[in-house]
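Handout, tutorial session.
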Amino acid sequence: MKSNVTQEKDLIKVKIKSVENPSDLFSDMDRLLNNYLEEHCIADVTEIKINEALSREINKLFDKHRSTRRSLIFITKIEDLSYFDEHAPVVPTEQEARDFLEMEEIERKLLDSEEE
């Protein structure tokens, strides 16, 4: 996987440029996420063509990292949204990704306050 990673406060942004093999997406992103255990992640895949195999690998990432206290959100082209469940954290713009992240943070805080 060829990508660029930038870091902001509590957030890494990954711009994925190309993927040779669908399983590379999972393994490379998983390794990256394990290096940034405290940060949320917005991954932009608008430069690659999503297909069934890639969407399965992205869904595996969601499943594996769902239990963490951080967000993992993908940005994809509008025409590629149909490869994902409507509740998956996949959106067409960076602003929507940031909004999604903020909503998940609010939800986590509410759940934490209910547990106390």
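The second record follows below. Compare its token runs with those of the first.
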Amino acid sequence: MRKSLIAIAAALTCVLAGCAVDGTPTRGPIELQTGKYGSMQTRSAGEATSDVAWAKLRAVRLADHMIFAHDLDPVMVDGKLPTQPLATPANVQVVIPDTADLPVMKDFEYGFTLSSGNEKNDAGINHAVMVFRDDAAASAAARQLSDVMLKRTSYSNYERVRVAGMPSESITVHDAGAGGKQTVAAFTPVGQRLIYTWADDRNRSWPERIVKAAYDQQKPLLDALGTVSDDRRIDPDGLLTGTVSEDGDSSNPLHGAVYGQRAAALFYGDQSAALAALKKSGIEQFAWNGTQLYKAGSEGQTAGWIDYLVKDFEDDSSRKAASPQDLNAARCLTRDGAAGCFVAVGPYVGEAYGKDLADAQQQISAQYGFMKKLAG
């Protein structure tokens, strides 16, 4: 499930001595089957020294102040792409194509976008907050970005409209596309930030309601932001070192980052329910790389979060699966085309997904070793 940057072909068996990880005496050494992942511990992240790294770090922090799609309408239960930090003008093109070279994008600093749809996949939203150099740039961005959308093409026929209740500075457009889909998009500057929401459905009243609700819910979150942190440390507590690094030639823009509590909830279908479960487990930080790591409030709060992860992974095709060799404490499941494994070490919860059970087992076994080092 995870796309990655680095492929290390060497396989490694992590050998520990003494007792099994669940405390049961054994007759021989413990051999965790980690495959190639045993040598793929994520390095310490250090500081965001480059412009792009600094933009991504601020975007990741902004994610802690984004709306929840499920709160706009409970039918929005299926997370979609793009959902990611926006660190460059090129990133913005995954939200609105043909915009990277606009004059105003020279003043673009960072942003975050999220997307969601319903189970039938006949209605959906894309929402973003983009931060610009100053208020004037954000207002110019509303005009220039909407102008791109208003250009007539063989597949697009947007026109400016008004949506009741939206502020006067908002620019709203509508397109009655092929197949009866009604699309509404709104661009609303709020200080140096731009709130953008796109929604579509067969009934025009639904996307109009969604863009209004998105603005109404997003603005208070931005108003409460306060002073933006100038701390350039990507991972002050070293949580990423408790994960497996990316494996491959491409990089997931969500990886290599540590997200706050509310941001962590963004990646679940019912974000408010996820946030409640995160709070119950005392989880305030979530590290995401090739595998994922959560830090609970205490060792006693990890089991509840693992229960939540297992339930979230389950569907009609899922089945309980064997724990990895010599790692009986790990819980694993399979479902059509994927497998997941979960384990706790002290206050930490590790989460790994693979294309099959053996792959997920190797990842969680490797992550277990990294988590032991992190826990000390």
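Points raised in discussion: The CA atoms of residues 93 and 99 lie 6 Å apart.
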